[in-house]
Every structure is written in C-alpha cells, then in structure tokens.
Amino acid sequence: MISTPPKHFRVRSFVGRNSRITAAQEQAFYECLPLYGLSTESGLLDYDAVFGREAPRFLEIGFGSGHSLLALAKSCPEQDFIGIETHKPGVGALFQGIRQHALTNLRVYHADAVDVLDQCIPDASLEGIQIFFPDPWQKRRHHPRRLIQPELVKKLAAKLKPAGTLHLATDWEDYAIQMMQVLSEEEALFNLAGMHQFAPRSPYRPLVTKFERRALREGRHVRELHFAKR
Q: Structure pTM?
C-alpha cells in the first residue's frame, strides 16, 4: 500500500541541490530570464500571447539540464514547450541552448511545479506532460515526499486536453510500481500500453541523460509509463 503525505506536508517538485553554477550559466540565466522566462506572479498563462501563435503545447516538469527538452523543441518547431525547473544551473544551461539555437517555441518557469500548476496552467490546455527521472526518495520513510502522488496526478490530468498524454520515466523499480498504481487509480487517465503495462522507450525521450547513464552503469532498468486522458 502506498503511503501518502500527512495533511500538513506539501509535496514539492524539487529537492534542494548545491551544484555550482558556471559563470556562463549564471550570465545566461540573468540575460535570458526576461526573454524566455515565465513568472508565477503573472498568473494564468496566455499561450497565444507568450508564443505569438496557436500551436500544440507540451509541459516538462523537472527538466534538469534541459538536454531532452531542448532536443524536442529543436525537432518539433511546430509545437510549443514549457519547462519547469527549480535548479538554477539547469535553467541557465537551457537558456544557453535556447539562445544558441535561436528557439522561439520554448519558455521556462524557474519555480516549483505545484505552484505553476495551481496558478498558471489553464485546465484542459496541454497536449502532453512529461516527467523524467523525478527524485526517487529511496528510503521508505521518505516515500511520501515523492512527486508522483494521487493529488498531483489529479492536477496533471486536469491540465491535459482530452486524449492528452502523461509520460513518466524512472530508473527505480519500486518507484515505477508506485507510479503505475497511482496513475492506474486515476479515473481520468488510461494506460496506452495496456492495463498495468509499462511502455516501450518513447521517441519523445530521445537523449540518454546522466540519470539514465548512471542507471545503466548500476544495472537498473528504465521504466516508462504512457497514459492518456479519457
């Protein structure tokens, strides 16, 4: 049985990290934040105003250094992408990529995903949401801190359009099992791979990240879940 956080505990999408930010990342962060950054203080997001067009919109929560999100935005110029990350070096690195490739279809929140979902993302507005390798909180007593909990999944489902997809990946088997249970119990979603079945590797996760490389070195198998909104 999956434990749930006590009522006074608020699940957040991040873990504090002390990674050093490079001078180039720091410069990109401050120079590009006014150009490509979004703020929770602006309230509900007007996609057409931000991107200057109508297009399918996708959200990635916790993009790390942004390699896979950058690759998606480059390969799918007809689609718009929004990334959420609290890790400042990662945001700076993604800004470097956006500027280098002159991308116009990618915007970034440097904020907690729960706040962004509650305050900024309109309901039934996204074609897809992806969360790759969220912190596994390996110790059992810390499992309630894991991001993928019923309340959060219900929020995610509300933000998807009908037939919009929720795509998760983890390299921790027990977390994959928990993800499967939580998503399978959400009535608004159904499993595209079949009931209780993990999905094959998706072409929308094109790059092997440092998390996946480490998992492969340590003999762990990456599990993917691909659900859609009814």
A: 0.89
